[in-house]
Design brief:
Blueprint: H1 2-23, E1 36-38, E2 42-43, E3 50-56, E4 64-67, E5 72-79, E6 85-92, E7 99-106, E8 112-120, E9 138-141, H2 177-182, H3 184-190, E10 194-197, H4 228-240, E11 244-245, E12 247-249, H5 273-278, H6 305-313, H7 328-345, E13 350-352, H8 360-373, E14 379-381, H9 388-393, E15 410-411, H10 414-425, H11 435-442, E16 454-456, H12 465-468, H13 473-485, E17 489-493, H14 509-512, H15 535-551, H16 555-559, E18 561-568, E19 571-578, E20 581-588, E21 594-597, E22 610-613, E23 618-621, E24 625-628, E25 632-637
Parallel strand pairs: 2-8, 9-10, 9-17, 10-11, 12-13, 13-14, 14-15, 16-17
Antiparallel strand pairs: 1-3, 3-6, 4-7, 5-6, 7-8, 18-19, 19-20, 20-25, 21-24, 22-23, 22-25
Length: 641
């Protein structure tokens, strides 16, 4: 009996030793038997040790996966409604080392498929992923319309939309990632510290594929924009210049031609899935269960369940299936995809599209998962609302009646954008004109952290600010100056610095997203070099360059106390203050010269001090009055040259 026990113990020890040796083996031959596995790789050292793998392969759903790699274990695995999917839940412990290992899939017929998988070492410590903040100025680019550095990728065989046509506002024009990288010096020289390109992931759609918001693969760069390596190079080149890359992501929807739409994993992978499958052969705007776009249902205490469901579950447009984040596998997929891109590119932030449309509990979990891993990171969510209450609702820490906390650092200030345009377009009166921005800024009491709200004057969805301000160059300068002085994170759309417009068809996306002059070989006008620009365009470039580059090092503008004075006789004064610096911004809407009595501003404690005029490059003394010679703006700082 004792001998038998000894034999059993020896056998068990032998098996343990074999398993240890096997678990420490490294892959010498890469195997790729599986059609698709996502994420395509992962990293060691995350706080969350769980990883969900999506495996796509014919009849893989009944396979038994096996992993022998130290520190990596399979917690469970499960098929889906489609037999062609398998989901594997892994635990990657703190002892796991970077390396490659095989996942073996034992099939019902006793055959085996092998897929190699890689865990990488993280190149940047989690706390060093520092996101954008009020010290930054963001340059927003529509990549297809900015610069075409590589005409060879303008057309890619096998994709549904072919060719470029620069005369068609809804066709592809050929701009690419390399075109952005080649002109980073221009962007940096203007004074920007961050670049936000609209999405560059593949949109293999039959039309309108240039804008990037109908992804057909969340892990693949669109080859017409370039390669993953070129995307990495853009991020790397930005870091060399101490600049940040912000990635535009979409959690709400995908493109109708996404690969999984041909074989949906679960019966509830997208919203209104049964309806879609029923009408798939006649799918159009009439057959689509469209969102009612009533975003206030997220906050409305009286909203009907029906209205909320139609808003959250309805499709944004017929070509963009609405993802169901209540499906736990979809939820994990989206969170992991965001983290994968943060690590792959070393991102400096995420802009999340259509933020109020997905399931709002999921969005809190999504942002929370990211901020847990990267405590100094930044995410801004798009809430297209002119109501500050709705904008403030989404900001982290806001005291919401429903106890909702978004975990979102920033939302987008559409309300202030409208206030600025209205303030400059309207005639002055008690309740119109400059009072709009005065009262708009007064609404900052509604925000947890006003300086972390992202403000802008125009973007890829809205009419150009020069157009909205009716071609008034002085008002455009005033608006830009205010944007860059107030307590916000400012974002400026490409081409605003050269007065790009959409006068021919205001608000039309094709005109809003026109080509940046000089981005294509043979362009008669080149805004990068100044060739062919009008005097007004060159002057606007110089103006923005002065203001942005001063702003870059101004602690008062980044984090200073804000004081503003109610508009009076067409003049409005805003001040940003720290112990070592005061910046004063003065707007004069009057066409004629005005003498500004400074006694009203005594609390700024500037009497007798020298102030430097950033725009005119001159020194003035803050005495009893300032002469405002004409309509315009003045930026004064106590930091003199």
């Amino acid at each position: 009996m004792k001998a038998l026990k000894h034999i059993i113990i020896v056998v068990l020890l032998f098996n343990v030793m074999c398993n240890v040796v096997t678990s420490q083996e490294t892959v010498t031959e890469i195997k790729n038997d599986i059609q698709r596995i996502e994420p395509p790789n992962w990293w060691t050292g995350f706080k969350n040790q769980k990883l969900q793998l999506l495996v796509k392969h014919p009849n893989i759903g009944t396979a038994n996966p096996i992993i022998n790699y130290s520190g990596v274990s399979i917690e469970k695995f499960h098929g889906a409604d489609s037999p062609n999917y398998l989901f594997i839940n892994l635990k990657i412990s703190e002892t796991a080392k970077a390396g490659k290992f095989n996942i073996r899939f034992q099939l019902e017929d006793d055959s085996e498929l092998i897929q190699s998988y890689e865990l990488k070492s993280r190149k940047i410590p989690a706390e060093d992923y520092v996101g954008f903040d009020s010290s930054d100025a963001i340059y927003l680019i529509t990549p297809d319309r900015f610069a075409n550095a590589n005409p060879k990728n303008d057309e890619v065989d096998g994709l549904l939309q072919q060719g470029i046509d620069r005369t068609d506002g809804y066709a592809r024009h050929g701009g690419d990632i390399e075109g952005i990288t080649e002109h980073l010096d221009y962007i940096a020289d203007l004074g920007f510290t961050a670049v936000w390109p609209c999405p560059v992931l593949i949109n293999d759609m039959p039309s309108g594929s240039y804008h990037g918001y109908a992804m057909t693969d969340f892990y693949k760069v669109d080859p017409r924009f370039g390669t993953l390596n070129e995307y990495r190079k853009l991020a790397d080149e930005l870091r060399v210049r101490d600049m940040k890359l912000i990635m535009d992501q979409v959690a709400n929807h995908c493109g109708l031609e996404h690969w999984w739409m041909k074989d949906l994993p679960f019966k509830d992978w997208v919203n209104y899935q049964d309806h879609y499958l029923k009408h798939i052969d006649n799918w159009n705007r009439e057959t689509t269960k469209m969102s009612n776009h009533r975003r206030t249902t997220n906050q409305d205490p009286y909203a009907s369940n029906k209205d909320y469901q139609e808003m959250a579950d309805g499709w944004f447009v017929p070509g963009m299936p609405d993802l169901n984040q209540r499906n736990p596998y979809m939820a994990n997929y989206i969170i992991q995809n965001s983290i994968w891109w943060i690590e792959t590119l070393g991102l400096g932030g995420i802009r999340q599209d259509t933020y109020p449309y997905p399931d709002k509990e999921f969005m809190s979990n999504w942002a929370g998962a990211i901020m847990t891993e990267y405590p100094n990171f930044s995410i801004v969510g798009e809430e297209w609302s002119y109501n500050p209450l709705l904008i403030g609702y989404w900001q982290e820490g806001h005291k919401n009646k429903d106890d909702y906390d978004s975990n979102l650092k920033s939302s987008m200030d559409f309300a202030m954008q409208k206030n600025i345009v209205d303030a400059l377009n309207d005639e002055e009166s008690w309740d119109k004109g400059l009072v709009k921005i005065y009262e708009g800024l007064a609404n900052d009491f509604a925000y947890t952290s006003p300086k972390d709200i992202l403000a802008f004057l125009d973007n890829h969805d809205k009419s150009r600010v020069y157009t909205e301000l009716k071609g008034d160059i002085v008002n455009t300068k005033i608006a830009l100056g205010y944007l860059l002085m107030m307590p916000r994170i400012p974002q400026i759309y490409y081409g605003t610095e050269i007065l790009m417009d959409d006068f021919d068809n205001p608000g039309d996306h094709g005109f809003i997203r026109t080509d940046f002059p000089g981005g294509w070989k043979g362009d008669a006008v080149n805004a990068f070099t100044g060739k062919g620009l009008s005097d007004d365009q060159k002057d606007m470039q110089i103006y923005l360059k002065k203001v942005l580059n001063y702003r870059k090092s101004s602690e008062a503008i980044h984090n200073g106390k804000t004081i503003h004075f109610a508009p009076n006789d067409g003049i409005y004064v805003l001040a940003r203050i720290t112990d070592n610096e005061t910046v004063v911004y003065i707007i004069n809407k009057n066409e004629s010269s005005q003498e500004l009595d400074l006694s009203r501003f005594a609390e700024l404690a500037l009497e007798g001090k020298k102030l430097y005029n950033i725009i005119l490059d001159e020194i003035i003394i803050w005495d009893t009055t300032i002469q405002l010679e004409k309509k315009g703006n003045m930026i004064l700082t106590t930091k003199t040259k």
